[in-house]
Amino acid sequence: MLKQKQTGEALKKRRGTAPETGAPYVSARGLSVGYPNEVVVADVNFELPPGQALALIGTNGSGKSTLLKTIVGLLPSKGGRLSIFGMPPGNNHARIAYLGQFHHSAFVLPLRVMDVVRMGRFPHHGLWGRMGRQDDDIVRAAMHTMGVERLAEAPLRSLSGGQQRRTYLAQVLAQQADLLVLDEPTTGLDAGGRELYLRAIGDEVCRGASVIIATHNIHDEAALCRQVMLLARKVVSLGAPDEVITPETLLQTFGISVTGEDKPQVFECQDRDDTERLGPNAPRR
Q1: CA–CA separation, 157 vs 217, rounded Å?
Q2: Where in the chain are the domains?
Q3: Nearest-angstrom CA–CA distance, 26 and 181
Q4: pLDDT for 61-75, tens place per residue?
Q5: Residue 267 pLDDT > 70, yes or no?
Q6: Residues 121, 136: Cα–Cα separation, whole Å
């Protein structure tokens, strides 16, 4: 169970750890990202191994979403090198779960919550592929994890913004991807939804998935991450949260001086009772 600063509970020390061996899932060298006539962020350099998370922190327009879209292959890079699982972006779709900021299907298609979460299994079976009992179990477990199980038959368009966001997060969990790429994932979530999200992402890291999270939040997501990248249309700083998040770097990132803040706590994996390891949160063997 993930404990976080804002709930007033201390993070527990690690007893079991996520795997951190093998080639990095994401590698960027001298990467520039942007649009046809504009470079938004230049000279991005980082590696993300299995079982680690990276938080991209910055204001709107700082380049967070542009970098994420480039990583998942929605935008071509403007220069430098970027590899995902050792290949150019746009390959291995089944291994990447992407949560963007906007979901037009919520307003266009008459989908139920269960339909949306089941879409997380499409990369493994194709749009018309037949799903089995295991897929159904994974979908139910993902809905349970995000607290939308009782809304399974509800039309998506009838839900509040926070409930819709929980549903899309459940879809991400149902994919059981190796790399989760999340753009402002807590937008619209209340305190309970944020707690469920933080626990779920902590479990994903502990089972060996890599996670990249774009966020405005300085502390909650940083507690999940081994690396933090502060962005302000440039890389202000990159490294461990307690080294990167300082009043000086926050001033460069947000244009405000932040004082009196505690250093971010660091999330650690811990052993759980097997009854808690359900569906998309179960560690891979």
Answers
A1: 27
A2: 5-268
A3: 11
A4: 999 999 999 999 999
A5: no
A6: 9
For residues 1 and 41, give the distance between their C-alpha atoms in angstroms, rounded to a whole number: 36
- CA 186 – CA 57 distance, rounded (Å): 13
Average pLDDT over all residues of the chain: 84
Nearest of 67, 14, 49, 52 to residue 225 by alpha carbon: 52
Q: Which amino acid is at 239?
A: G
**Cα separation, 185 vs 166, whole angstroms:** 9
Q: Is the pTM of this model over 0.85?
A: no
Neighbouring C-beta atoms of residue 47, cutoff 10 Å: 15
Mark 121-140 as b/e (b = at least 16 C-beta within 10 Å): bbbeeeeeeeeeeebeebbb
CATH superfamily, domain at 5-268: P-loop containing nucleotide triphosphate hydrolases (3.40.50.300)
CB-based contact 44:235 (threshold 8 Å): yes
24, 49 contact by CB (below 8 A): yes
